[in-house]
């Protein structure tokens, strides 16, 4: 039996590095995990006034998370934090109060940047947001991918050899993290 993992690509850009990294993770995942990469373009803005009759897109996103066995966030860094679209998705999924769709789900975080810092501030932002609304966050290996600008070919395939063992180690560790918390 494989655990179903939702991988959230935290950028809307069609050719985003986060989406390419998420897809690369799906290809590298061991047989114990089945990764579904999710993009956030269809999730409307959170507005507490709509909670009495939530929009269909909120309900579909929440249900996908609730049916999963874990979540991996793959995020770029925008202005020293996560993109607004990712924060919005987290707000949508964490409501209504006390019924977060992330509750009990083992969580992984990968940040990335074409620059030298690897989006570390975005990862730290998620580490501040998720406690209290999510399950256990994988602590090691911390993965902040820098210089990802040349990591993929035109078709989105991972071609930067130095990145493959990093992503493989990450997804193998995440598989153990999920098994530990569902075992």
Automatic annotation (TrEMBL):
Gene Ontology cellular-component terms listed: cytosol
Gene3D superfamilies in UniProt: 3.40.50.360
A Pfam family: FMN_red
NADPH-dependent FMN reductase-like domain mapped to chain residues: 4-143
Domain of life of the native organism: Bacteria
A GO term for molecular function: oxidoreductase activity
Protein name: NAD(P)H-dependent oxidoreductase
Biological source species: Bradyrhizobium zhengyangense
Record lineage: Bacteria, Pseudomonadati, Pseudomonadota, Alphaproteobacteria, Hyphomicrobiales
